[in-house]
Batch of 3 targets.
Target 1
Amino acid sequence: MGDPRKNLYERYEPVRRYVEVGFWIVVMAVQAVFNTTVALVDARTRAAPPATWEILVWECSSHLVLLALVPAIVAVERRLSPLPRLHLLRYLAGHALASVAFSVVHVVAMFGLRALAYMAVGERYDFAGWSGQWGYEYLKDVRAYVSIVFGIWAYRLFMLRLQGEARVLDAPEERPAPLPPPEISPQPAGVEPAMAQAPPAPPAPPPAPVRPERFLVRKLRREFLIAATDIDWLQAEGNYVGLHVNGHDYLLRATLTDFLTQLDPAAFVRVHRSHAVNLGRIREIEPLDGGDARLHMHDGTTVPCSRRYRDALRAGAG
């Protein structure tokens, strides 16, 4: 029995990786069975139908390669996911180029597996005209690529809804503008002022930025507060920032750069292109080759620190 105090997301997290891998294996297996059945039925209508084992080799080799390429598509989608709102053309162009590479790898690897299977039974797989077939294969591969990307996007959206999003609770209040200095009435001619006119007051310093102290987090219809000082470290995750707090992850729709402006710069320092840390939560700094470092946090996690941000880390820790 699981801990009843854990919500659905917390109970799902330990088996998440197994579910994700199992999902794509099942999808590809079902698709292979369906396509093989259609190909076998279609073969009966041909004057010289291919052997059953050949159809099995064709479909299995294709779907095995598709399955192996799913992690690469996940990586591409994760890399391109921050672009849609501001760079839609770059986002679409990135996926278009990735689909071409996806199709080329799929066709080459698929033909290679088929050649090995034919060799195992003493036959020779004919590669003649494979370049002419690539256009036809690309049209099929584009559909497979788009379907996989859509599945990744839908699953990510589901996980965001399941995990919940954080938002700023304390909105900055507008400070009232300073009142203008009182006007001094002109003195009549020949009348001495009772006292010398006071020099004009120096301009007021700009108001200090108002930073939120708490964030509201929603998870599965539950709401609770996170103090800004309780954040251990932060990570850029596409259009979101992941807040890591006491072993839990919360997402805030913002860029890492924008979100850091709402935190105390004396406490939070950027240590990587996609990571920032609470200086008070660093337990140990482990130097690495090339000037990089690995930060060991008090919650047991590790955060990368690139050489570019080492000086900022030393200044903040000093």
Target 2
Amino acid sequence: MSLLPPQPISPLDGRYRKPVNELGDYLSEAGLNRARVHIEVEWIAHLTKRSMFGSKPLSDAQLTELRDWAANFGETEIARLAEIEATTQHDVKAVEYLVREQLTRQGLDSIAELTHICCTSEDINNLSYALTVKNAVEKVWRPKLAAVIAELTSQAKKYQDLAMMSRTHGQPATPTTLGKELAVFVHRLQRQLRQIDAIEYLGKFSGATGTFAAHISADPQANWQKIGQSFVESLGLTFNPLTTQIESHDWQAELYDRVVHANRILHNLATDIWSYISIGYFRQIPVAGATGSSTMPHKVNPIRFENAEANLELSNAVLGSLAETLVTSRWQRDLTDSSAQRNIGVGFGHSVLALDNVLRGLNQIDAAADTIAADLDANWEVLAEAIQTVIRAEVTAGRSEITDPYAALKELTRGRRIGQAELQEFVSGLDIGEEAKERLLQLTPAAYTGIASTLVDLI
């Protein structure tokens, strides 16, 4: 016996409900049913507009009332659907009966049999999922990602000229700028976003096994493929003309794979920012009243980026599984997709939660320019690359006879720290042209950033 009243099992419906709440308008059972009602109503409108099966076009008032009822699908309809489904034991059939009831209320019993005519449940479901996923991506998930990209862009420009030690393999390496490193993530995410925007949301509407058999039986003279295509396209979707009973879900796999990849880039961003915080390159801005540790009052933990990491991994686990599962259906139909697709909201929910945390985390950090500058000044050996490259150029130009400049710099710098004085003493003794020598003597780690600052302008 439970000691508690019913509780949400998923933290997305409990602890983290607020950041993901908007997704519930689309990627929930109620959101799916609202879309189903919308599809059924629009199919009736599509048929009556063409006077199919002897019907007459609905008046503007009748059509407006019917569409308004579908658009205002809410608690009353949710409760009534539950009552009907308790009897039908079939969710799409319950939607059909709900629509029929509305037709009766409007005095439209004469066209009641047009409800769900020539349709299989998958005709309604595939279009409903396409619409709900499309809306969830375009109205919720994409704006969240765009906000992260916008903040990263702002910080990339803010720190465009802030020279910073690079760390390849975790070791001091050729300097860059903080802005350029953030711009790399902007560029990567923008590229994924363009690919996601180009995804086609496909829909089929061709009956029990994709052959329009029932349609032709009911009206052999109608061009059902054209009617089906025009209906799907009227919903803002792309028509898939060749399917089994189900739409093959390839577009879903393509979309989820792209979202998964965007998640991976965000995961890389989160781990990089976390690491920069750990070495003092970013200072965290304390949140009033917040506690970093239950026992260590001094701590400000990078919890936003840690939370994002975990939720990006969970999102990828779900969306990756969906991308693999949905593209396989035994013969003309099995129901593995039915169970799997009910978790689309879970996959996007964890991604939205991660995006929320990344954005909040970015707004709670500030570059520690003094720490970054001190790190550069403590690592003059990173100029070894520049020195040996200049020597190579001087040898090629006939202004030096130094053999194996790489080895000479390796002996001087590998595995040890050297300061400005030691490095400049080495340069002063080089057998190279005076112009090149002077150029090297003027070089500092903070100035050895190439065109890093200019590269930020590419975003």
Target 3
Amino acid sequence: MNHILVPIGESTNAENTLQYAIDFAQAMDAKVFVFRAFKVLSKAGTILNVDQIVGRETTSHVKEVLGSVDLKGVDVSVISAKGNVIDSINSIDKELGIDLIILGPRSNSIKEEMFLGNTSGSIVKQTDISVLVVPEGYAFQPIKKVLTAIKSGVIKRKEVLNPLETILEVFGAKMRLLQVKTPNFLEEDLEFHSELAAITSAYKSSENATLFQGVLEHLNANNPDMICVFRRKRGFFKKLWEQNSIKKIDFESRLPLLVLKGTE
């Protein structure tokens, strides 16, 4: 894992998210790119260099957040881009190659009942880069136990597992696999990708209405340091992601949540 992207918004939790990312990157020996996109609405009579002014203010805000954290010798760069957040992230990934995005659940000051805000939710939903969602106020700690929740053991591309494999290797962590059999469970879901099986230390199956309910049922028994799920067309967050934002009543994680992408 070489490059980690950290989108920064207006959230008061931005400093905490960045500090977690830096601590995580230090363990991974990775480089951090702190990123913020900005938009400029065109209005008649506006000054010609408004883009440059807003761009400078955006960079200034990011550097202010950067100045409030302990860099711990990690290589950190600042990136600001004009335009859509998703398009900007895709462009950065194309140019630099991003291995993981680390973000807070709410990039802006929004209602307390939301787990994922619109921007954070859209990044998780619309990019093909694995995302680590860090709960508000959560302090970094070495990862020793990971609970990976799945419906299906079928994985089409083995590189999807790379972030999880790296985390397990670097921290010497153990991964417990929880397979939740929901009402739409298929027999083919019992087939397991060989590399997923290889990194599994323990396995348990459960019957629940949703994957989220399965995670809640087994969370305390496993006491993990991280939860891992896969983003699938037929799977976790499918109904939740009809919109980008997610309410806490529908889903919430109080532990770092690793969302692996591109399994189908």
